[in-house]
Amino acid sequence: MTTFIKRSIIFLIIIGLVGLAVFRVFMNHKIEEMKKKGFITGAIPVEIIHPLEKPLQYKIQVIGNLLSSESVILKPEIPGRIVKIAFEEGVYLKKGDLCIGLDDEVYKSELAQAKSNLALSQKNLSRAQTLLSKQAGSEFNKDTALRDVEVNKAKVDLAEANYRKTKIIAPFDGFMGLRKVSLGAYANQGMELVNLESIDPIKVEFRLPEYALPYIKMGQKVNLSVDAYPNEIFQATLFAIDPKLDSKDRTVNAKATLPNADYRLKPGLFARLQLVLSEKPQALFLPENSIVPVGNDTFVYTFNEGKAHMQKVKMGLKEAQEIEILEGVTKESMVIATGQHKLFEGMAVEPLKTEVSAQGKSS
Predict the structure, then answer these.
(1) Is the separation of the CB atoms in 81 and 103 below 8 Å?
(2) Whether pLDDT at 265 is above 90
(3) Tens of pLDDT along 120-153?
(4) pTM to 2 decimals?
(5) Whether the Cβ atoms of residue 272 and residue 233 lie closer than 8 Å to each other
(6) Which helix (H) or strand (E) holds 157?
(7) Are 120 and 112 in contact (CB under 8 A)?
(8) Angle CA 13–15–18, to nearest 5
């Protein structure tokens, strides 16, 4: 910061203080004149409150989307005609349950052929080993027979794998979606057949601004609401934060999980989330209508020795109709709650109520 800027700031501060002092002197003079002329005949009745002291949570609100805990679209790894659909759309299946069966006749025959070739090659190997032991065969013949056995074993393994793939099973517990094929249809390799969704627990994905990163941690609770159930608050647990921020908007992806035993929450629902970044055990609050803005500054009127005095305050967060006060008053301060537009610095006032909290309840 340059010397010129520093001097300018100091100059502006001095001007502001001098202006406030002149304003107070002017208002005191006007009040005395009004009293002499009979416009002010007595103290103005006002309501007095004390700032309310209570815990404060610094929160952030973001939006997100619900996701399945696990989600997959079942596709055949081999081509074949669909001969069995073993599920009803929307039903719950367990891991390992059969979903769709493909025609296995060709693959069964290929497996039988591979096993037959393996059996023959094993006999040839045994014969070659016997001849070699009697010095009637060669090492080359034995090695060739051994190689044939290994090749045929691999072919059996391949045929068995293809045969198993004619049965498409559920890879995890979940609800079947709406199928995209019918019985008798020919399914090509990689063709989408049906989706499977695991939704208990269910996940929510959302984005956090970079300034929130120092305040969030794994296992932190997240309050969640959805339009489908507007009067309910669900609680999720943060379990994953992407280590890389998006360079475009400086946000980071995060995920939380929450129980969904009744399956009411569905993947794809729009969600509103609220996270607590930090907490202040004791914070001071005043009603919003007790704040008096003057230019870029904010003031309150305090009561002292029968008169109203303007007190500059620094505001913090707003909660409902209350505003956090960071500087300027204490919990013992007597603040004028109403009628500020009729008051001036040093004006005589008479409290209607005393020892009243910021919420208007007698203490």
Answers:
(1) yes
(2) yes
(3) 999 998 998 888 888 877 888 888 989 999 999 9
(4) 0.65
(5) no
(6) helix 139-164
(7) no
(8) 110
Task: Give the pLDDT of residue 357.
Answer: 47
Calpha distance 95→360 (Å, rounded) = 60
Residues 6+ apart with CB under 8 A from 317: 56, 58, 323, 324
Q: Which residues contact 325 (CB under 8 A, 6 or more apart)?
A: 51, 284, 285, 286, 313, 314, 315, 316
User: What distance in Å separates the CA atoms of residue 187 and residue 193, rounded to the nearest whole number?
Assistant: 8
Whether omega before 293 lies within 30 degrees of 0, making that bond cis, reads: no
Backbone angles phi, psi at 323, to 5 degrees: -125, 135
- The closest alpha carbon to 241, from 221, 261, 222, 218, belongs to 218
For 146-197, write each residue's pLDDT tens digit.
999 999 999 999 999 999 999 999 999 999 999 999 999 999 999 999 999 9
